[in-house]
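Sample 1 of the test manifest.
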Amino acid sequence: MSARAYLVDDDEAIRDSLGWLLESRGVACESYPSAEDFLAAWEPSLAGCLLLDIRMDGMSGPELFDILCERGSRLPVIFLTGHGDVPMAVSALKKGAFDFVEKPCNDNELVNRVIEALKLDENRRAAASGTDSVNARVSRLTTREQQVMELILAGKLNKVIADELQISMRTVEVHRANLFEKMGVRTAVELAQLLAGKR
Amino acid sequence: MSARAYLVDDDEAIRDSLGWLLESRGVACESYPSAEDFLAAWEPSLAGCLLLDIRMDGMSGPELFDILCERGSRLPVIFLTGHGDVPMAVSALKKGAFDFVEKPCNDNELVNRVIEALKLDENRRAAASGTDSVNARVSRLTTREQQVMELILAGKLNKVIADELQISMRTVEVHRANLFEKMGVRTAVELAQLLAGKR
DNA sequence: GCCGACATTGCGGATTTCCACAATATGCAC
DNA sequence: GTGCATATTGTGGAAATCCGCAATGTCGGC
């Protein structure tokens, strides 16, 4: 499933016109007539951005946004509204919405926002993939190896680690070498930088 | 200069009433009748938050905000406005404003926002002080010591560092020991973690 | 029961780091 | 010129790390 703009609006005319507008500018687009429909189709791996109408039959845009946030969605959300409401805009943006646009709006401007949002999502995913890769490697470490790694990151000498874990220094050396191998680093410094901030 | 709420509004009645409100809730407050006046008094070390009217004679609130941002201000800003304007609210929040409140507003709510903003600023400063402390220590390092530190952080062995800097290994050892001393660390791993992300 | 993954340990040598003691050279400030 | 900060190098030994080779023991799955 490649990145695209997900358009959620209960007004078919808007779905069609916005969908056409986006497609004409080269932005892949997928439309849903209700928040419930989108929520049913949503999964964490969805990439792209979400164009969300505020007022809809059934679940409202902000309600859907809240639920997605709770479920860990990082999809950038652009709210669309027909009637300016400052508190609502403030609330949405403070919760992390990407943008809040009043209809009718400048089409060109809206497409630009969508493209910005898509780019943001792409960058986020690129950054996250690095972290994921590191986490994956850490999870492949043995229990003992993880323990040793913790102590290495605490800046302790092998002899101290051996002491604290009640094992011989030689064993620590083995675990150390193995975990370096698995983590793909050659020195403790590289290890520290690889895990910097990622926990 | 301790943390306080800086109130900028060209309406004396509002300055007085908001000032009184904040003081009565234990929030120190300082008022300015214009953006220009505040800008003249501003300095990077000011701690607290800024309550900023949108529409004023002379420089507007958003204009002042932009200038402060350019000058590196991290002061949380709460915008106050009498006439709801969604695009302006969106613009302000996307630029990093802390909040955007319509007048008249619930006094209690406003004070709570101010207190939140003050807390945010305090937390930011606490986090930054650690970074500053590290930066200060780095700046006390000799040119050579900084060069050696870079190579240590690149995970290189003393012999390699000696080679790259075209000096003897012994000299590298000296610089290494000195910079560890100055940075207050005992191992290369501690050094790596101290500087993790801070550059 | 056999096999593979994991944990453990020892030996011995190569390599590296850590450090005290000692010394030379340069550049800048007073 | 004297003094201080910085940079440089050497000797030599103690401590720590790095690593190949070899081996034992446990545990869980097939």
